[in-house]
């Protein structure tokens, strides 16, 4: 009995394709945008990445920058004048102060 071994070769017909990039990972400031990168045969079938040239593999993520993030803004300190009145409860034994 003769046993025959078939070796799979990398072919030049395999391509690396990628999907459109996704959204940025943040809504403001700096983030990362990712996309799917796949090794595909000439018949448009997904194959193992070992059949595509790793040197030609496109990047699958890159930095993105969205609009500046909102931030707090402070003003100067100022004096506030309040009118207060004291309300006492003789039955409960406590007093409260209400200010407007």
UniProtKB/TrEMBL annotation:
The keyword Signal applies. Keywords: Repeat, Secreted, Signal. This is Uncharacterized protein. GO terms for cellular component: extracellular region. Gene3D superfamilies: Thrombospondin type-1 (TSP1) repeat. Its main location: secreted. Pfam families: TSP1_ADAMTS (PF19030). It is found in: Secreted. One of its GO terms (biological process) is anatomical structure morphogenesis. InterPro entries: TSP1_rpt (IPR000884), TSP1_rpt_sf (IPR036383). It comes from the Eukaryota. Coiled coil: none annotated.
